[in-house]
Amino acid sequence: MKAWLFLLLLPSLALAMGTPPQKPVAAAPGNPGIMLRDDALKTSPSSAADAVAKLGRGDKVRVLTSNGGWTQVYAAGKTGWVRILSVKSEIAATPDLGALVEAGNRPRDPGRVVAVAGARGLDEVELKAARFNPDELVLLDTYVASRSDAEQFAQLASLTRRDVPYLPAPESASQSSMSKQP
Amino acid sequence: MKRHLPWIIVAFCGIGLAQAGDFDNILRGLIKQKMQPAAPTQPAAPAQPVAPSAPAAAATAQQKPADQLLKALLSGNTSQEEELRIGQQISGNLLGAAPLVRDDGLQRYVNRVGRWVALQSERPDLPWHFGVIESDDLNAFAAPGGYVFLTKGLYKKLKNEAELAGVLGHEIGHVIRKHHLKLLQKSQAIAALGSFFGSKLKNENEIVQNLIGNGAEIVARGLDKDAEFEADRIGLVLGARAGYDAYALPAVLAEIGHVAKNDKSVSLLFKTHPLPEDRLGQLSEAVGERLDGLAEGQSGVGRFYRLR
Question: Does the predicted TM-score (pTM) go above 0.80?
Fold first, then answer.
């Protein structure tokens, strides 16, 4: 009898422990976001993946997570992936704890405490007080990669040149002498 | 107004503050070095950087070139060598504040990736130098003539080679569009005007002093934010040209956007750059549908050099 009851409970337990809820239950998942352009909602973070829906510019979505150049969103009852530049999170920079702690001092293991204790910043005061260090420049010089070195290195990873024109400044951007080519 | 990259200027005012008396010597030394005909085959690599302590030979005779440099800056006709001298000086100062991470493998790796990305630009044959510097801050810097640095803190945030390429591409963008030279040039213009309308006619030394004084002003101002947006567009494109995932730089920006705004590690970055959200918004608008036909690039995650 008791075992039977337990079995009944199992599915809900699994549900509770499973992947993040994909439907808004009490609170909607993720953060509010808005589509900046029309884009396909893909089943996985890849341009080769199937599209499960079509989202339009201005559509409200919930931003769940990101993976490289892709953002996972929940919209119209579906969860999928869009290009990172297609969607904008409306909550600016939710400070996620991981990043926050990582950026600060995170003595993860005792061995690291020493290093972290001496965490180095690089602020204006330090930069102003900086003294020319010729030895570092000499060292820097020893790491220089020649053109052929770099080309060979690219070849090793099958990186091939592609023809991509420069992007013009968007119309909304204010024009200044800085944006013009010399 | 967003301030930016004060460090170029910072470098100058660093000289001004920390070694005011040495500045003329440095500049003279630099210019002198420039005046010596370099072997044509020898890339203008700073194999022999000029230390502040370099003897200021023939002090008076060397004042002319200082004037030339100022004139070059003013007219916007800085030669590549002059550009290099300035960049070398700034880089030497920066490295004085934050030395290179002592990891040969890392530095070589970054130089190869960086050079490959720079090869996709219109200045492929500058003597490009890339370095990861000892700092837990998240930041990256460029100096005229092809010097690019990123902090260890930022490097550790990167997930793959494509993201590194995007970050380096952004800095390469500053170099190839001469953003910092233009910034200096602006301050020179002010300095020169000040000199002109000031009572006494300036000799070169006084002009140099003026330059330093004005440099401090620029620290508070920094680069135009449009220059940052432009560097983002260039960084994205250069990464894509190099065969990497075009969306890697946006991914880095999003990642940086997750850091709390008041975190110490991003204070200088956010002081000198538009916020990541704004940069992403600008990139989004600039990209539009332009990359829709582009084949997926590589992430290069497999050989990404990870820091312990």
Answer: no
